[in-house]
Specification:
single chain, alpha+beta, Beta Polymerase, domain 2, Hydrophobic Seed Protein, Hypothetical protein af1432, 4 domains, 7-stranded mixed β-sheet, 13 strands, binds adenosine-5'-triphosphate, binds magnesium ion
Length: 447
């Protein structure tokens, strides 16, 4: 096989230098996969027959990071980019479904490719030999197939994270998982219990953002449930409500795929109805209801994200979006200002995007009206931004010093007055105008 791919001059320079010193070297892994697919790779990894010390000697470069050398990796900084150059290696016995007890350096690129997770990632390239492909990776790329290199059960037992990588690549690349690999994913899903929360979360984020998230989540809920068991009650939970045609899980999956590709939004979509099964009631006419599900869902989202070690900003934002996702106040400026007070300017459009995705994943019942409502809210939001009104204390054209100047001393009282004025402005009963506010403050002070 001798297909040509374009490699950056820096990568070519490194590979050529190693070749001239008598070693074989290749671009390897994700960068070859992406190039074949016509995508721009995010980074270029290099593998080589030279041992780390030999790599250093052959390259004679100044900026070298040596701390991966034990595992065979030399990182060089060249023309403002980092390149990882790793000696051909095969991994020894795996101790904990994640870490090889030892790595051994091997002589051939074939053995190095054999330790990699998926055929589409087990590809190497240099200009002399073209694409090196021992496991049918190029054909799998052509056919859109995700398949393990070698025996899937063994590969997942060596490293459980590969299960998440399999799902992530299927979602992001829009590929189908080969049936043997798919069965092994289900069979070995429990191995994810041995994998750190951070690594799982990082793959889960990418999976949610993928174009094929719908397929992956609907087929592999059992795998996701290994680290988020809270989702299980959603699966198959019929809603018995004219607004819905899907069970709670399939509805959720569709909301995710209708949401824009934003991590916070897709996480919010994932959790938005997770409180439904526990809040389910049926009215006399047989209709299902879920009173309080956003509040419960927000608490579940908070706990799950905390357990998966997400950062506080993500935890708080996602829970807030979940808590507010079902609020439908009248489309009026004052309601927009209340939302803005809770969410801020940047997050409010996200809430509207979530609402839109939610509607698109429901039945056609009143769909047109529901979508019109969301778009009306969006219009009002845009108008609100230029209105000069206020939805938080900072925006108010009066502050604590003004109230002190009127003779107020007690800090608590000052706070109360400012909040009262803000409430009046938000409700549209008072203009955010300095004179008007000063006057209103005087009456409040004397009240
Ligand atoms: P991307 O960088 O786009 O997320 P990638 O395939 O480059 O995708 P990396 O995590 O950068 O992923 O890994 C580089 C290469 O190392 C992979 O292409 C694969 O060949 C190999 N690899 C990474 N993680 C594993 C793993 N857990 N098990 C086996 N091989 C792996
Ligand atoms: Mg990579």
């Amino acid at each position: 096989m001798c297909e040509h791919i374009d490699i950056p001059v820096n990568v070519k320079y490194i590979i050529d230098k190693l070749s001239r010193a008598g070693y074989s070297a290749y671009a390897v892994g994700g960068c070859v996969r992406d190039s074949i697919m016509g995508k721009v790779p995010s980074d270029w990894d290099i593998c080589t027959s030279s041992l780390p010390q030999q790599t250093l000697e052959a390259l004679q470069m100044e900026n070298i990071i040596e701390n991966g050398m034990k595992h065979g990796t030399v990182t060089v900084r060249y023309n403002n980019e980092n390149y990882e150059i790793t000696t051909f290696r095969s991994d020894g016995v795996y101790d904990d479904n994640r870490h090889p007890r030892s790595v051994s350096f091997v002589g051939s690129v074939r053995e190095d490719l054999a330790r990699r997770d998926l055929t589409i990632n087990a590809l190497a390239y240099n200009d002399t030999e073209g694409i090196v492909d021992y496991f049918g990776g190029a054909e799998d790329i052509r056919n859109g197939i995700i398949r393990c290199v070698g025996d899937p059960d063994e590969r997942y037992n060596e490293d459980g994270l590969r299960i998440m990588r399999t799902l992530r690549f299927a979602s992001v690349l829009g590929f189908t998982i080969d049936s043997g690999t798919a069965e092994a994913v289900h069979r070995n899903a429990h191995l994810l219990k041995n994998i750190s929360a951070e690594r799982i979360a990082s793959e889960f984020n990418k999976l949610l953002m993928g174009k094929n998230a719908e397929y992956v989540l609907s087929e592999y809920s059992d795998v996701i449930a290994v680290f988020i068991p809270e989702l299980l009650p959603m699966v198959g939970f019929e809603q018995r409500n004219p607004h819905h045609i899907y069970d709670v899980w399939m509805h959720t999956v569709k909301v995710i795929s209708f949401s824009p590709e934003s991590r916070l939004l897709r996480l919010a979509a994932f959790f938005h109805d997770i409180g439904k099964p526990q809040t389910f009631t049926v009215s006399d006419d047989g209709t299902g209801h879920f009173h309080g599900h956003p509040e419960l869902g927000a608490r579940i989202a908070f706990d799950v994200l905390k357990r998966l070690k997400y950062d506080n900003h993500t935890i708080n934002t996602v829970s807030l979006l979940v808590r507010l996702h079902d609020k439908r106040p009248p489309a009026e400026p004052k309601c927009i200002r209340r939302f803005l007070g809770e969410l801020g300017e940047e997050l409010f459009p996200c809430l509207l995007d979530l609402k839109r995705a939610d509607i698109l994943a429901q039945s056609g019942f009143f769909r047109k009206e529901k979508l019109e409502y969301v778009e009306r809210m969006r219009e009002l939001y845009k108008q609100e931004l230029n209105s000069g009104s206020a939805y938080n204390l900072k925006m108010l054209k009066i502050n604590g010093r003004d109230i002190i100047a009127m003779g107020a001393k007690d800090g608590k009282r000052i706070g109360e007055i400012l909040n009262r004025l803000l409430e009046l402005v938000v409700d549209g009963k008072l203009e955010n105008d300095r004179e008007a506010l000063l006057q209103a403050a005087v009456s409040e002070l004397n009240a």
